[in-house]
Amino acid sequence: NAGVTQTPKFQVLKTGQSMTLQCAQDMNHEYMSWYRQDPGMGLRLIHYSVGAGITDQGEVPNGYNVSRSTTEDFPLRLLSAAPSQTSVYFCASSYSRPTGLAGETQYFGPGTRLLVL
Amino acid sequence: KQEVTQIPAALSVPEGENLVLNCSFTDSAIYNLQWFRQDPGKGLTSLLLIQSSQREQTSGRLNASLDKSSGRSTLYIAASQPGDSATYLCAVKNYGQNFVFGPGTRLSVLP
Fold first, then answer.
1. Could you tell me the pLDDT band of residue B42, with boundaries at 50, 70 and 90?
2. Which of residues 14-53 of B touch A (CB under 8 A)?
């Protein structure tokens, strides 16, 4: 299994440009989520999905869109990038909504480093 | 709203030393607490999970404790090794809520 994969690893955007961060998992996990990590702050939840066709907002959803058409893929879209969206983005997946119990461990991708100029 | 802090932000120790990392949270009505490890350029890896009813968990040289009443958890690393160098994050889950992560402690173990 490849686990959770993310592309690209690094991206530079100009303010106002749009892009999609890709996330895929091959573990047949129902739950997938996107976090952003900023210096001096913990990971903050952007959006999450409990299954194909179902998405919901996390703590910091503004400026981001998601969709979940398949179990495997959960792309994150920036429609009009802003410098405040400069961050490292992590995708994670688990069998069900993570509670921390055995069997519900979150698996994290390697991250996408985004710089918005 | 749950808030999680970690002190210190960075720590440098010589190889072989025992060390303690701290995690504090503001809302003590937690469901569980997890410690993660993050290597540079990598995602997070779960290390230890403590349920709200537990006081500690151990895995090899790692021991995590939980004191809900004071809103604190510690991660104890025995006989540190250079391979332990990484950022350590704690994450707290309250009932019906998503995990809230701390900012992490960056650990360097010097040979």
1. confident
2. 31-34, 41-46, 49, 51
